[in-house]
Each structure stands twice: as C-alpha cells, then as structure tokens.
Amino acid sequence: MSLTNAPDPAARAAIVQQDLDNVLHPIVQHRALEKSQMVIAGAQGSTIRDADGTEYLDGMAGLWCVNIGYGRTELAQVAHDQMLQLSYFPHTAMNEPAAKLAAQLNGLMGGGYHTYFVNSGSEANEAGFKIARQYHKHESPGSYRYKVISRHYGYHGTTMTTLAAGGMGDRKSKFEPMDGNFIHVAQPTCYRCPFKLEYPTCELACVKNIENTVQAEGPESVGEIIVEPIMSGVGIAVPPDEYLPEVEKICREYGILLHVDEVINGFGRTGKMFGHQHYNVSPDIIAVAKGITSGYMPMAATVVKNDVFNSFLGEVADGRQVMQVNTWGGHAVAAAVAVRNIEIQLEEKLADRAAEMGKYLQDGLRTLFRHGVVGDVRGKGLLIGIELVTDRASKTQLPGPDVQAVMDFCRKAGVIFGRAGGGRMYSNTLTLCPPLVITRAECDRIVETLDRALTALGK
Ligand SMILES: Cc1ncc(COP(=O)(O)O)c(C=O)c1O
C-alpha cells in the first residue's frame, strides 16, 4: 500500500470491527479506542496515513524508533533477497548478516565489543542483567554481586526484571511485588530536581546519592548500574555533562559494571550515533533496539565489552558459555535489514542531521515560551520534551485533561505528539522523537501546530 492508495471506508470499518472483536491492545483503554480509532494503512518519510486517507506528521517515529523514516523500499528488497538466501537458522550456528551486524556495531562502539542478539529492548536489558550476574559469578565467586542500581522514573522495558529496574510506579503497581534486588536512586531531572537544588551549585547531589547507595548496600553486592544516557520516557532529561563520567567513575572504583540503555538514544537520535558517546564513557554492557532496524524488523542486541565477553570463554566442560538462548536471536532477515538500515544512517549522516534539525526544532519550540504554559523545552538532537505548567514560577503541572486537549488539537491538525509516561510526576510533558529525515518545513509545521493548540487552550 502506498500513500496514493484511495481511502476505502468499507474496508476500514471492517478492520475496526475485526480488531475490536479480537485484539487486546497494549496500554490503551479499549473503551477509548472505540471512540478514537486509527487504522494506519501506509507511511512515507515522516508521514503516516490512516485508511480513511487522513495524513499525520509522526512526531514520535512510531514508538521512538523509525529513525530512517517510513517507506524505504530498498529494505523490502534486502529482506526479500535474504529470505530467499536463508530465512532463519538458530544462532548457535553462524550466519553472514548477523556476523556483519555485530562487526558493524563493534565498529560504531569504537571496537572491543561482542554482540548477543535478542528481539526487543526489554530483552536486551534483561539479557544484560543476566550477563552481569553470570560474569560476577565467574569473576568473584566468593562475593556474589547481584544487585542492580537504577534510577527512579527510568524505563528499561516491560518484562518483570526490566520493570523492577524501571522507576515508574504506575507501570509497576499492577504487577508488584517486584524483585527486590533492583535498588533505585535519584534521577537527574534538573528541571524538577529531586533534591530541589540547582545545577551547578547542587554539586551533582544525584551522583553522590548513587555512591551513598552503593556504600549503604555494600559494594560487594552490587553487580551493575543501569542508566539511559538521556532519560526519555520521563519527558526527556538531559543530565549535566559530568553526570555519566562521574557514574562511570563510581563503577570503576567499586568494580561495578556500567550498563547503558541505548534503546531510544541509539542510532543517531541525539546527534551522535549513541547517547553515551556525548560523554566519553566506555560502558561494559550496552542495550540497543528500536533504531537498529528503524522498525523495519524486530531486532535488538546486548553489546558487551570484551572484558566481559572474555569471562565467558573456556573449555566446554567449564560451563562458562552464555547460559541463555532465544529462538529468534541473530535472525538472518532482521540482521540483513539492520545492516542496510545502519548503512543508510551513515551514508545520509542522519546523526548529524538529528543534531542540526534538533537544534532547529528546539529553537522553534523555544519561541513558544510566549505562552505562559510552556515551562521547559529540553532535549538533545531530535529527542525533545516540552513541559507544560500552569505558571512558570511555581512549575505547577498543567492538569492532565489540558495536556490531552493540546495533544488532541494537534492530532486533529495532523501532527502527532507523544506524552511522557512518568505517571503523576511527568505526564504533563509532551515529547517529540520524529524520524531523523524530518525536514525544516515539517519542523515548522510542528511548532506552528503546537502554537495554535496552546492559543486554543487559552491559558
Ligand atoms: C529506554 C528504553 N529501554 C527499553 C525499552 C524496552 O524496549 P521494547 O519495548 O522494545 O521491549 C524501551 C521502550 O520504549 C525504552 O524506552
């Protein structure tokens, strides 16, 4: 189907009925879906099209992932060719596309890494936790390091352990109690500092909180610290430049692995190929997903430093091999698509483009400070948050229905915004994470649409 396909109301109505009768959708209330359906039938560049013919500028690149934009027919060709050559064989054997992709990732990380393939960002982090646990069992048999330190309001996935690592109460509460070995520390959200301090006089109280927690827990029990370099789900939080290097220092001092979640930050999104590359750190475990295929195939990976990888080497009888397996890991078709997707990102210099367009879009959004409800505009590259407040001095959050009204106005005007998923604390923040191929004219349209929505809100 392409954008030129004519709308087909009867076919659309049939799809809606079939869906409502049979599908259980993630995280949306079906009663709301009945009223506000979208049946996405096609997409091109940064634009998606409903089966009724309505087009939307997709300010969220799907679910933070379609980095190279929609409708790249050459990826269909790559998938087609690879399927004919070899569709699938378990990754206990080798295949060409997965080997190529691992080499590509190793090069992008600066060398010295091996890659374990999985299928989603959650699984990439989960595999990382397991690799860290196994590593420490090998390397420090007398003093087992099993705890994970993570941040309040972080999001690392939807499985039970990634939820436990996450720090969003509303995502966890239905499934509690959680694994108690995930210990939460203060998040580096400067606009709403958990210590009510201001940078730089805060002297990075959030980092001190991490070190204090490590000491209180007993460093010999802590296996890893997981961080998303630029927190996204919480409404985009760019930490001070020293934050990640200081976290790395704590890891090195206490023998803790640094696990970086690049699921959203990765593949050019923030203006560099990976978020942590803004901060000159060298993580031990890196989870990648989403932009690795730009959504053209499900694929994700856990990339580990060779120091960690080497711990898994030995004779078969030693039992040091990675003690996990998944059916689709290293899938030949997904890997072939990922390889070409990353080549496109490099050929079209999309990380640089994210830096350039991100600045352009953020500059445009900052003109909206003329609306009293715009409390903060923040981000890096094309990962942007716009926090809405009732007044700037008190930073009181704009009530949920008003935030929803702004989003609904924009959607009706054909522009899709996201909304932070931090529950009570941050859900007054609109998010933008568009395809990295977004044009200046499209950036202008986002700003102009939000301007009109805020005017219509009249607050
Ligand atoms: C930072 C981060 N980590 C992990 C995940 C989980 O990825 P997935 O939904 O592919 O399991 C997400 C999903 O949005 C994410 O934002």
How does the SSE layout of this entry go?
Blueprint (H helix, E strand, L loop, with lengths): L8 H14 L7 H6 L4 E5 L2 E4 L4 E4 L2 H4 L8 H13 L10 H13 L4 E6 L2 H19 L7 E5 L8 H6 L3 H4 L9 E4 L19 H13 L4 E6 L15 H12 L2 E5 L23 E4 L11 E6 H5 L21 H16 L2 H17 L7 E7 L2 E9 L4 E2 L2 H13 L2 E2 L1 E2 L9 E4 L7 H18 L2
Parallel strand pairs: 3-14, 5-6, 5-7, 7-8, 8-9
Antiparallel strand pairs: 1-2, 2-3, 4-10, 9-10, 11-12, 12-13, 12-16, 15-16
Helix pairs in contact: 4-12, 5-12, 9-10, 13-15, 14-15
The protein binds pyridoxal-5'-phosphate.
The site of pyridoxal-5'-phosphate (PLP) has 16 residues, from helix 6.
Short précis:
With 459 residues, the protein is an alpha/beta fold. 38% of the residues lie in helices and 16% in strands.
Strand tally: 16
Broad CATH class of the largest domain? Alpha Beta
What CATH architecture of the largest domain do you see? 3-Layer(aba) Sandwich
Question: Oligomerization state of this entry?
Answer: single chain
Share of helix, binned: 25-40%
